[in-house]
Design brief:
The chain has 257 residues and is an alpha/beta fold. The protein has 9 helices and 8 strands.
């Protein structure tokens, strides 16, 4: 696996930012099988893997063995930096939603030999990143074959006004209600055509403080007739939980051989 810490200038942010990119290669070190799964296709499949509120673009590597897991699957992994933006165009700050949803995929496609086909494009994340993953999937279902949320903030309508929001809500959303916006995941789900949505995966610990977010999202999906692969299993908001979870997500992704 080729590993790159990439620094770029983002026009949508008006400043430099970073991302970590893992890219498959045929050669591998001791104890690993190399895999370049591009085959006869135009590029390898790609997973956009999103970080949480307290993290950065390096966190998945520092807390899990994502490089080893991705090597076994022959998939590229793109881990962007979005700070504490909630993957939004911040009311007071930068346009991270525009960056992640528009500029980042264009940068990746023009720089790395990854497939841009919907069936080869996936997104996943933890906590705030689980919110970001489903925000991308529900706002742009034509771009992603599958999306996974690990312990995700799946009902930010309540989160941004509660004890975990605080000044963050003012900075990110200007204190405005999220109902009917691109950040209202349950509202988007209730308006979506189930036939065109990506495959969805929800994983959350029953001892996680975000468990009710996930239950509300799953109830809305059931009411709309949207099929979701879900696991509400013992666990909390911890890296032990997410390390297991991301391995299962990679097994679940419909990666073409």
């Amino acid at each position: 696996m080729i590993r790159m810490r990439t620094d770029v200038f983002a026009e949508s942010l008006g400043m430099g930012t970073s991302m970590v990119v893992l890219y498959p290669q045929a050669a591998a070190g001791i104890g690993m099988d190399g895999s370049d799964s591009a085959g006869g296709r135009d590029g390898v499949p790609v997973l956009y893997l999103l970080h949480g509120l307290s993290d950065d673009c390096t966190i998945w590597e520092r807390r899990t063995a994502i490089e080893r897991y991705a090597t076994e699957k022959g998939i590229a992994v793109v881990m962007p930096e979005v700070r504490r933006s909630f993957y939004a165009d911040e009311a007071v700050g930068e346009n991270y939603w525009t960056f992640v949803s528009e500029e980042l995929p264009a940068l990746v496609a023009s720089t790395f030999h990854v497939s841009t086909a919907r069936e080869d494009t996936f997104v996943a994340g933890l906590s705030m990143g689980g919110f970001g993953a489903f925000k991308l999937a529900l706002n742009h279902p034509d771009r992603f074959a599958a999306a996974a949320s690990l312990s995700g903030v799946l009902d930010a309508r309540g989160f941004h006004q509660g004890e975990h929001g605080g000044h963050l809500a003012e900075r990110v959303w200007g204190g405005k209600p999220l109902e009917g916006t691109a950040d209202d995941l349950i509202g988007l789900l209730e308006q979506a055509d189930p036939a065109v949505l990506p495959q969805l995966f929800v994983d959350c610990g029953t001892e996680d403080f975000l468990i009710e977010h996930n239950r509300r999202f799953l109830a809305a999906a059931e009411g709309r007739g949207v099929e979701v692969t879900s696991r509400l299993r013992p666990g909390a908001h911890t890296w032990d939980f997410w390390d297991t979870g991301i391995q299962d997500v990679l097994d679940w992704l419909p990666i073409r051989g």
